[in-house]
Amino acid sequence: MSLDVFRGLTVMAMLLVNNPGDWGHIYAPLEHAKWHGCTPTDLIFPFFLFIVGVSIVYALDSARQAGHHGPLLRRIARRAAVLFGLGLFASLFLLWDLRTVRIPGVLARIALVFLACGVLFVKTTWRQQLGVLALLLVGYNVLIQLVPVPGIGAANLEPATNLGAWLDRLVLGEAHLWQESRTWDPEGLLSTLPAIGTGLLGLLAGQLLRLKNLDAASKVAWLLVAGGAALLLGLVWSNWLPLNKSLWTSSFVLYTGGIAAMVLAAFYWLIDVQGYRRGLTPFVAFGVNAITAFFLSSLLARGLNHWQVAGPNGPVGMKDWLYQTLFVPFIPDPYLASLAGGLAGVLIWLGVLWMMYRRGIIIKV
């Protein structure tokens, strides 16, 4: 249950960050770091990828031990393809222009991390997975800081001129990148390699929790120690390679993965070991239908922005009209009004997901 609660909290935070009342007045803790650095908001996506890794262990361990890996690998590939397809559909929704559709994205990255970690879980041991993790983090560090960028010059960590941005433009083309820049993408191809490392940290944590010869207190202690060590190593590494979510730097992987491990340890101890369950149903409701909540909320947000209604200064999107009508007149502080608008959206989705949960409706992707 602790994993569902952790996932539910993470998705609720995702919805809150992705749908503020007013993009021009985002409540400060809900903003990403401008470039280098790590805010509380920057923890959300790595937390989710860490949870993906933990979930793989619980979902696939029995089938892996039973053998016959062919069907299991096909199942992993099919789920990754569905997740990737949902991401493309969300990007195309209401625009339907294949010439400019964004190919990278949150769901695309989840799909690729799930695919890589799923295959590694089935085909490798935890020691080999630890080796792959080290190779990915060190290898990415070498690529991003030492390899010259063709047509630009020396290796650098700037948004539009780093090696990852160059690779995205080369392979995908500017038309298919994040529309806010068109020169780079925060979920680009090269930075997906260390993102797989985040999933591997979750994979290792999940295997620790599944050990049958280790008592609960020891599992919590190991998670806390390993998480703390990863956090400290990430902070030390950040002196050479800064924490950066958009580049998904190796230091960022260790720092955020370490925090995720310690949060999971706390939840596991309180919920699964000590049996604390009061007031957790809303988070479980979000957690068991996490992808559904994220996907449908993305479609609804785009639909409300696309639907134009008459405003005092001309047509405006329905989302903006609702915000200006229901929140701005009653909350003088624009940042608090923006926060209230985002929270209202989360509460609406909580109502939907709670009804689904009460009726036993869980949509498997």
From TrEMBL:
Keyword annotations: Membrane, Transmembrane, Transmembrane helix
TM annotation in the entry: 43-60, 80-96, 102-122, 129-147, 188-209, 221-240, 252-271, 283-301, 335-357
Signal peptide location: none
UniProt cross-references to PANTHER family, sorted A to Z: LD22376P (PTHR31061:SF24)
Record's protein name: DUF5009 domain-containing protein
Annotated source species: Hymenobacter cellulosivorans
